[in-house]
Amino acid sequence: MAGILAWFWNERFWLPHNVTWADLKNTDEATFPQAEDLYLACPLAFCIFMIRLVFERFIARPCALGLKIQANGPQKAQPNAILEKVFTAITKHPDEKRLEGLSKQLDWDVRTIQRWFRQRRNQEKPSTLSRFCESMWRFTFYLYIFTYGVRFLKKTPWLWNTRECWYNYPYQPLTADIHYYYILELSFYLSLLFSQFTDIRRKDFLIMFLHHLATITLITFSYVNNMARVGTLVMCLHDAADVLMEVAKMANYAKCQRFCNLLFVMFAMVFISSRLAVYPVWILNTTLFESWEIVGPYPSWWVFNLLLILLQFLHSFWSYLIVKIACRAISRGKVRDKSEVSKDDHSDIESSSDEDSGPPPAPVQKHYNSNTNGTNKAHGTNGYLSAGAPCPDEH
């Protein structure tokens, strides 16, 4: 184990030439980032998750109910042991051949079976109230951390001159403000990483998982090798658009369509300008070129910049989605349809977004069979739970 740790913390990988870990040990005169500082983020991530549960229950939920957001979920599928077994053990989207087999086995119409599977899939979707509470929690955190970042950074020299990120590197002392900023951001993204498995399921689950991993790795990398100054710039820049994204989703769930439209336009402008213009010109320029000139490259420098470039590719992908939404909306003469406000830079696209958006015609059963569990009555349902409660003018 000692050999593995020695290999992992190899100074020639992490630090510039002729710099050792001993040079960055804390002294009475200066404090430097230490890898063990980051251990605090794990229990803090759990605390943040618990705070989120309390916040959603006692603050976000009353706000949602005050805005007339209903807690009702989709209509439940009628109990049927055979279909439930197929749904849980085999497939949630049966093909035509399986549908025909189930139709013969249950003596049901194929369309009725399709509707049952649609209703059953919709049962696993959260209600609009749950979505609102999730967005309100994220909005609250992003607003707080972005405000903190701006207030802190406006007093620093590297906000106004990015070359200050590299002067006297890596012997730049760690301040209490930077330490707090880093630990809080890392804790929050750790909580997002794990809560991703309990939150609303999105089509871009893998992309978001990679995003959280890349973010956590970037925060860790920049802290351990004391690139904290440029790290604070990256974090603050990314939090700006996230604030608008979450409040736009909240407006959509509350059916405030005009306010939602305005916020979506603001979000799109801030996101695209900050991540396709400011980020490469301001951040990538200093990490790739200014740092090369002042400090010079070393192994972890390459890894750090590779992760930043990966983040830029994700920015481009999400910007493409935003522009696509805007173009489709303009062609229809409105900002978005019922599922699109949540197609933000985190692409709140649901795994079942292809479900029908209107009530289907009433099913017609082939035969009545009282011996089959759950077949004594066919229920009609809208078979659908939108990503956010759509406004009346969105149909």
Describe this structure in words.
The chain has 13 helices and no strands. It is an all-alpha fold.
Helix content: 55-70%
Number of strands: 0
Contiguous runs where pLDDT drops below 50 for at least 5 residues? 334-395
Strand proportion, as a percent range, falls in: under 5%
From the spread of the alpha carbons, the general shape counts as elongated
Mean pLDDT: 83
- Total helical elements: 13
Structural class: mainly alpha
Rg (CA only) = 26 Å
Task: Describe the protein's topology.
Blueprint: H1 2-8, H2 11-14, H3 41-66, H4 81-89, H5 96-106, H6 110-123, H7 128-153, H8 157-160, H9 176-195, H10 205-224, H11 228-253, H12 257-294, H13 299-332
DNA-binding region: 85-128
Region (Disordered): 341-395
InterPro entries: HD (IPR001356), Homeodomain-like_sf (IPR009057), Lag1/Lac1-like (IPR016439), TLC-dom (IPR006634)
Task: Provide a brief overview of the structure.
The protein has 13 helices and no strands. With 395 residues, the protein is an all-alpha fold.
Search tags:
single chain; 395 residues; mainly alpha; Arc Repressor Mutant, subunit A; 2 domains; 61% helix; 0% strand; elongated; Lag1/Lac1-like; HD; DNA binding
